[in-house]
Amino acid sequence: MNSFYRRLLAIGSLLGAFGVIFGAFGAHFLKNRLETPSLDIIRTGVLYLFIHVLVLLFVVILGIKDENSRLLRSAGIFFISGVILFSGSLFYIATESLTGLNIPFIGVLTPIGGLCFIIGWGMLSLYPFSNK
Question: pLDDT tens, 121-132?
Answer without folding.
Answer: 999 999 999 875
